[in-house]
């Protein structure tokens, strides 16, 4: 799934909220959007068509009802799919190597990565 910059801004808003949001809430919570507020319907319909979001009910605001929208894919799933799209498993060591060379890598992050790798190794051994 490929998202535009504007669509990704809406997705980030939904992921950050960790709950379904109405259109007006997305407009309020989206930090410095690159899109015009009048285009939100187009963006939401595009995200629905791509199945990146789903309708998650309705909310009453004043005398009208509005739809609630929820992310249909997690942030982690989207970014991992995007990162490795079309590159295959052979690119994973390359990305990992680049990560290890980062100046921002702390001991705490290394410990966390080791824990994640150990958990994944256990999962693979069970399969």
Summarize the structure.
With 127 residues, the chain is an alpha+beta fold. It contains 6 helices and 3 strands; from the N terminus they run H-E-H-H-E-E-H-H-H. It folds into 2 domains: 71 residues, Winged helix-like DNA-binding domain superfamily/Winged helix DNA-binding domain (Arc Repressor Mutant, subunit A); 41 residues.
How many strands in all? 3
Can you give the mean pLDDT? Answer: 86
How much is the radius of gyration in Å?
19 Å
| CATH class assignment of the largest domain | Mainly Alpha
Biggest β-sheet: count, sense, barrel? 3 strands, antiparallel
Task: Supply the CATH superfamily name of the largest domain.
Answer: Winged helix-like DNA-binding domain superfamily/Winged helix DNA-binding domain
How much of the residues is beta strand, in percent?
5-15%
Return the string of H and E elements: HEHHEEHHH
Kindly identify the CATH topology of the largest domain: Arc Repressor Mutant, subunit A
């Amino acid at each position: 799934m490929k998202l535009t910059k504007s669509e990704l801004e809406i997705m980030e808003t939904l992921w950050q909220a960790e709950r379904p949001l109405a259109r007006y809430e997305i407009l309020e919570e989206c930090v410095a959007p690159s899109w015009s507020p009048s285009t939100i319907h187009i963006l939401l319909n595009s995200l629905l068509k791509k199945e990146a979001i789903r309708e998650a009910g309705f909310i009453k605001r004043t005398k009208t009802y509005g739809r609630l929208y929820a992310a249909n894919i997690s942030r982690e799933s989207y970014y991992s799919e995007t990162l490795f799209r079309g590159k295959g498993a052979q690119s994973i060591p390359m990305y990992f190597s680049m990560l290890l060379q980062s100046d921002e890598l702390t001991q705490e992050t290394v410990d966390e990565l080791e824990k994640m790798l150990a958990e994944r190794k256990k999962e693979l051994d069970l399969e």
